[in-house]
Write a sequence for this structure.
């Protein structure tokens, strides 16, 4: 049974509060709840499973040493840990390829190891939408990935990416509007011609002709 | 297009055939070991005896030394402290930003520790020291951070192909909250300019000798496109102009496009010499 997001966030905040006060069982539970989505996020951006596990390990090591830095006012525990994961990912990519321009890092954050994504998208509409989205800046693509692929709220997307919630909402609103228009036009253009019934010509004859 | 089907279409863009991977078992064990080393001790005084307890080790070490030697004004203690915050920023790509061909003029602040003995010595509080020198990076942000309680601020700009790609800001001082730094970064640098940023504590180990005071003097040095020899002479001359009367050794090394300047300086009263290493990421002349 899927737990409502608000309930999950409240529980994780409680677990965090207990963990930072030395409750090992609470921390273990928190780890078990966060490790899967964090590893999923990192794995989706790195080709190597080994690298992904190393980065995930670094994320949780940072979590252990920075428990006091989480501010509940800024977002959920998961969003905060996602932000740690994002920054650790940036460091990893830059270490691995120090001469690569910053744009490469942004692309990794936005799309990751998704060369075969288009083949995975079975629906033609989704494939078309993805093609449109690829034209957008990496930052926008990353927002969409965090929201639609990893289930983060707009607020949590903002926390993860270090942006204001207002800026995230504005970007989403504009991009969704544009995507909807293009997708709608694409569907209309692709729709088959309507099969109409051609009426036979009528003749006007008086029924009372004699 | 209906909203719900549109959002479902977007979600299906990211749906994957493979399930989310499971973390390896050994990762959980490793993380728990680290957690217990740092946190579990806080539940009980018994935890102070935990040899892996870093804080307890320092505290017990200090107490043990004092117990053995009595009140020892000369006994050293080492304490890990948080000295400030380190902000790492990655800038969003700005294709229209001009590439900088000329060598960057960078302001450095070289810190010299001065140990003054005697109860009558007064340490100059860092907060009262003026910010001298040319501030070429984000002057408004620097002023705002100073007003918010920072003792000292250092900027280090990173460039790729001559264009700014990111910046490191070292905010020294224990009186400025990380939340204030974040707020000021967003306000003065601009969210549209920043791809991401991270704030981590600056920690260090402060060694003090009980009964002595520590003061600091800051020197602002400008470096430019000189040769190594010219740079050495320039730094020494600037130190002398600003009243530094101790010994200074300047070492300049150019390697692979990176210039590394090491300044080791000490005062004439025999205090410790402090090496300050500054890396300037720019092409060699």
């Amino acid at each position: 049974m899927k737990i409502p997001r608000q309930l999950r966030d409240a529980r994780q905040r409680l677990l965090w509060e207990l963990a930072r006060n030395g409750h090992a069982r609470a921390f273990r539970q928190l780890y078990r709840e966060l490790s899967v989505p964090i590893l999923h996020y990192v794995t989706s951006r790195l080709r190597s499973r080994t690298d992904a596990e190393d980065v995930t390990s670094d994320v949780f090591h940072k979590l252990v040493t920075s428990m006091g830095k989480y501010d509940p006012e800024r977002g959920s525990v998961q969003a905060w840990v996602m932000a740690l994961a994002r920054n650790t990912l940036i460091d990893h990519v830059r270490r691995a390829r120090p001469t690569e321009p910053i744009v490469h890092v942004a692309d990794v954050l936005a799309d990751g190891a998704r060369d075969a994504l288009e083949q995975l998208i079975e629906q033609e509409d989704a494939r078309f939408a993805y093609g449109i989205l690829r034209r957008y800046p990496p930052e926008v693509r990353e927002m969409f990935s965090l929201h639609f692929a990893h289930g983060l709220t707009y607020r949590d997307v903002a926390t993860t990416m270090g942006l204001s919630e207002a800026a995230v909402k504005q970007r989403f609103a504009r991009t969704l509007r544009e995507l909807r228009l293009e997708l709608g036009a694409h569907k209309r253009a692709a729709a088959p011609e309507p099969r109409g019934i051609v009426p036979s010509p009528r003749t006007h004859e008086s029924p009372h002709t004699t | 297009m209906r909203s719900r089907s549109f959002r479902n279409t977007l979600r299906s863009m990211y749906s994957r055939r493979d399930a989310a991977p499971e973390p390896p078992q050994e990762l959980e064990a490793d993380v728990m070991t680290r957690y217990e080393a740092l946190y579990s001790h806080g539940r009980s005084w018994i935890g102070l005896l935990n040899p892996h307890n870093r804080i307890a080790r320092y505290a017990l070490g200090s107490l043990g030394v004092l117990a053995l030697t009595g009140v020892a004004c000369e006994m050293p203690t080492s304490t890990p402290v948080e000295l400030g915050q380190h902000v790492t920023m990655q800038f969003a790509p700005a294709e229209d930003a001009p590439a900088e061909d000329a060598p960057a003029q960078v302001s450095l602040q070289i810190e010299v520790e001065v140990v003054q003995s005697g109860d009558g010595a007064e340490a100059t509080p860092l907060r009262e020291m003026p910010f001298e020198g040319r501030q070429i990076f984000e002057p408004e942000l620097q002023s705002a951070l100073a007003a918010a309680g920072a003792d000292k601020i250092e900027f280090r700009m990173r460039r790729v192909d001559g264009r700014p790609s990111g910046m490191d800001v070292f905010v020294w001082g224990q009186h400025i909250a990380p939340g204030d730094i974040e707020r000021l970064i967003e306000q003065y640098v601009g969210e549209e300019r920043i791809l991401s940023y991270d704030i981590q504590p600056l920690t260090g180990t402060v060694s003090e000798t009980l009964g002595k005071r520590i003061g600091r003097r800051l020197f602002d040095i400008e470096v430019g496109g000189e040769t190594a020899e010219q740079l050495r002479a320039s730094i020494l001359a600037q130190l002398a102009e600003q009243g530094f009367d101790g010994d200074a050794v300047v070492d300049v090394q150019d390697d692979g496009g990176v210039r590394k300047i090491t300044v080791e300086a000490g005062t004439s009263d025999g205090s410790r010499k402090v090496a300050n290493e500054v890396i300037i990421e720019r092409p060699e002349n």
